[in-house]
Design brief:
By secondary structure, the chain is of the alpha/beta class. It is 36% helix and 8% strand. The protein has nine helices and five strands. Strands 3-2-4-1-5 form a five-stranded mixed β-sheet. A hairpin with a 5-residue loop joins strand 2 (72-74) and strand 3. The protein is globular.
Length: 252
């Protein structure tokens, strides 16, 4: 077979393996248009695996019976594994909510960090995560406000990543919001629950939302008390979130 014939045969083989377009369930003519692009994620959700090693985490995330996955896993040594195509809907968020979005699986990229939840996140892992986030944000222009933890979007069920996660370091690079705990000249006069809701938290369980906030922004684990310092930080974050405009999306 000539080289041209071989290339043609390979092309036909690849075409036969390509998945057919999802179409309506009754007769309709397929007239493909070139004016489209893939669905674009608008959130990144960060998790920790809760395992002591990468092997059981990967086994869980690739086991069909477990029905759980993530787009990426970042190992303690900085190795990055991709498990799901970014264009596809990974099953990592579960029942979740942020603001008005109640299907974070459909709108986010999920990143698992190889961490048992009781240990600091090692430097090689954080460096690799920052590189991954830089790449993802550069391609999808995800606004800083939309880099979240699993515990933020599912506060009544999840506690990851732990209070040891370096959220400020990410925010300094544009991946999330941050306010250094301010010393307010006057006490916060608003409603803490309403402020949590304004930031994006699901406040159906106010204590769970407060615990999630303290874990993310105050580095305090398992505390539902919004201290004066926490309330001042919350007020600062709400103001900052309102001032941040989402980065523009491309296309029509």
């Amino acid at each position: 077979m000539t080289a041209r014939g071989l290339l043609l045969a390979c092309g036909l083989l690849l075409a036969s393996c390509a998945s057919a377009p999802a179409r309506v369930g009754f007769p309709a003519r397929w007239v493909p248009s070139p004016s489209f692009d893939a669905r674009r994620p608008t959130f990144v959700v960060i998790h920790h695996t809760s395992n002591d090693a990468i092997e059981p985490a990967l086994a869980t995330l690739t086991d069909p019976a477990r029905q759980v996955s993530a787009h990426y896993v970042v190992e303690r040594d900085g190795s990055v594994y991709q498990l799901v195509d970014e264009r596809e809907r990974a099953w990592h968020a579960g029942r979740s909510r942020w603001g008005s979005d109640t299907d974070l699986n459909s709108s986010s990229i999920g990143i698992e960090l190889d961490n048992n939840g009781r240990e600091p996140f090692p430097e090689p892992q954080v460096v690799a995560l920052l590189a991954l986030l830089t790449d993802v944000q550069g391609r999808y222009r995800i606004p800083a406000t939309n880099f979240l933890g699993h515990g933020d979007i599912a506060p009544d069920r999840k506690v990851d990543p732990s209070a040891l996660f370096p959220w400020k370091r990410l925010a300094d690079r544009g991946f999330g919001l941050w306010c250094d705990a301010p010393t307010a000249d006057a006490p916060f006069g608003g409603d803490g629950v309403l402020a949590l809701q304004a930031l994006g938290y699901d406040v159906a369980n106010p204590d769970a939302a407060a615990r999630a906030f303290n874990r993310h922004f105050m580095a305090i684990e398992d505390d539902a008390t919004l201290s004066p310092q926490a309330l001042a930080t919350l007020d600062c974050l709400v103001r900052k979130a309102r001032a941040v405009s989402p980065l523009p999306a491309s296309g029509g």
